[in-house]
Design a protein that fits this description.
- With 126 residues, the chain is an all-alpha fold.
- The longest helix has 28 residues.
- Helix 1 packs parallel to helix 4.
- The protein has one domain.
- Helix content is 70%, strand content 0%.
- About 4% of the residues have low confidence.
- It starts with a helix and ends in a 6-residue tail after the last helix.
- It has five helices and no strands.
- This is Transmembrane protein.
- Pfam families: DUF2784 (PF10861).
- Keywords: Membrane, Transmembrane, Transmembrane helix.
Length: 126
C-alpha cells in the first residue's frame, strides 16, 4: 500500500512539474525570483521532449508501482484521470516535438506578458 501511495505522489509531482513548466512564468508577475526556478524547469521539459527521452520521474513511479505489486495503471482515481494526460498512449516522436514547441510557445507568450508588466511598472500581483 505504501508503494502505491508513493507512486501516486510521484505522479502528482510529475503533473505539478508539467503545469509549472508550462505556466510557472506567471509566478514571475508576483516575484521575479521565480524566474530562477521556472526557466530551468521549462528548459528541462523542452529538452526531454526534443531529445525523445523520458523524465526520471516516470521510471521512479513505475518502480514504486512494481514494488507495490501493481502491473499497470488500473484502479484508482489518480490513475484513471491523470495518467492519460501525463503518459498519452499515442506518444510519438512527432507528438513529442509538438509538445516541446507548445512548451516554448506558451512560455514565450507568458514571458512576453511578464516583461510587458515589468516595463509598465506594474507592482507584483497588481
Amino acid at each position: 500500500m505504501i508503494y502505491r501511495l508513493l507512486a501516486d505522489a510521484v505522479l502528482l509531482l510529475h503533473l505539478g512539474f508539467i503545469v509549472f513548466a508550462l505556466l510557472g512564468g506567471l509566478l514571475a508577475c508576483r516575484r521575479r525570483g521565480w524566474l530562477w526556478w521556472h526557466l530551468p524547469a521549462a528548459a528541462w521539459a523542452m529538452a526531454i521532449e526534443l531529445s525523445g527521452g523520458i523524465c526520471p520521474l516516470t521510471p521512479l513511479e513505475n518502480r514504486l508501482r512494481a514494488l507495490g505489486g501493481a502491473a499497470g495503471y488500473h484502479g484508482g482515481f489518480i490513475e484513471h484521470y491523470l495518467l492519460a494526460l501525463i503518459y498519452p498512449e499515442a506518444l510519438t516522436r512527432a507528438l513529442q516535438l509538438v509538445l516541446a514547441g507548445l512548451v516554448l510557445a506558451v512560455n514565450l507568450a507568458v514571458y512576453g506578458y511578464v516583461i510587458r508588466r515589468w516595463r509598465q511598472g506594474t507592482p507584483p500581483g497588481g
